Amino acid sequence: MLLLATGCNQHPTKRDDKATASSNSLDLAERCDRAAIQLRSQLGSEHSVIVRPPLIIAGDQSKNELTSLYSSSIQPATVALKRRFFNTAISRPTTVLLFSDQTTYQKHTARHYAAGDHANSIYGYYEPTDQTAVVNLSAGEGTIVHELIHAMIMADYPEAPIWLNEGLASLFEHSRLVETQGKPDLIPLHNWRLRVLQRGIADGQQIPLRDLAVTTNKHGQNDALFYSHARYFCFYLYELGQLEELYAGYRNKNESPRELLAHIAPDLDWADWDRNFRKWASNQRLTKTHGDDSGAIHRLLKD
Is the pLDDT of residue 6 over 60? Predict the structure, then answer.
């Protein structure tokens, strides 16, 4: 719902803003409920469905299991990510389909999507045309976060460059959920993509950051190497404390990639960035502390 003022110079009052937000929220909840009814009829009785606007979460688990997963992982992760990066919340009903094993995941993919569309996605995928994230839970809970970040970026910055879209999603697919000043936060951890990146660097296959920044289509490239570069350049910027600023700069369309990086280190050119990133990436180590799961969320409870 959009509030329009025609032939009037008055600004809406705070009360009007609250009323509009409440109306929008109610409208979204109603749309989610309708979508859930339709989804239940499509999936059948062997699947459970819960509604947590803007999400409709379904899977081959019980309602209690879906509710627990939402409360322990999905909700705090999305709250943490929105606070860090996203100004605009998801405003359309978004479906999250969770399958407990590879067989049921692949069966759904084959049934609902044309051959080749998602045939190579063994962990999960986000289909923007119908606002649906599909997840193979046997790959880890972090895959849910990966796919939901795509949905959140679609709402906040649909024109996001592919390296930033995939880089952010991959960055938090393996992370630690913590509390910072009483609020949830996600801390990225190393995962198997580090080995892919380091092997690529050792073999002289590093993607120049200038090229990465202007990539518009990852297809035709070495996908594993592309994802690893995107994830770890985001990780590098995260450790420099500049990832949020760079994302906001891209979204606000104020500056080019080079200009954005110049704010971080004005004396560095692309070659310097490549050299520093390569040195940093080569010195990282994947340890048992990080784990080696392709997509897990580790919970750290603080007093």
Answer: no
Q: Specify the pTM.
A: 0.84
CATH number for the domain including 141? 3.40.30.160
Q: For the chain, how long is the longest CA-to-CA vector?
A: 65
Q: What pLDDT, on the 0 to 100 scale, is given for residue 290?
A: 54
Question: Could you tell me the residue range of the domain that residue 116 belongs to?
Answer: 24-159
Q: Is residue 8 included in any domain, yes or no?
A: no
Give Cα 187 distance to the centre of its chain: 14
Pairing of strands 183-188, 124-127: unpaired
Decide: 172 and 146 in contact? Cβ < 8 Å.
yes
Output the pLDDT for position 120.
62
Any domain includes 181: no
Q: What is the pLDDT of residues 47-88, one digit of tens each?
A: 999 999 999 999 999 999 999 999 999 999 999 999 999 999
Examine residue 188 and say whether the peptide bond preceding it is cis (omega within 30 degrees of 0): no
Q: How far apart are CA 295 and CA 137, in angstroms?
A: 9
Q: Give the C-alpha separation, 34 to 164, whole Å.
A: 33
Euclidean distance between CA atoms 36 and 30, whole angstroms: 10
Would you say residue 262 lies in a domain? Answer: no
Structurally, the chain folds into a number of domains equal to 1
Spatial contact of 90 and 155, defined as CB atoms under 8 Å apart: yes
In a domain, 210, yes or no: no
Q: Which residues, 6+ apart, have CB-to-CB distance to 110 below 8 Å?
A: none
pLDDT in tens, 206-265: 999 999 988 876 645 568 899 999 999 999 999 999 999 999 998 998 677 778 888 778
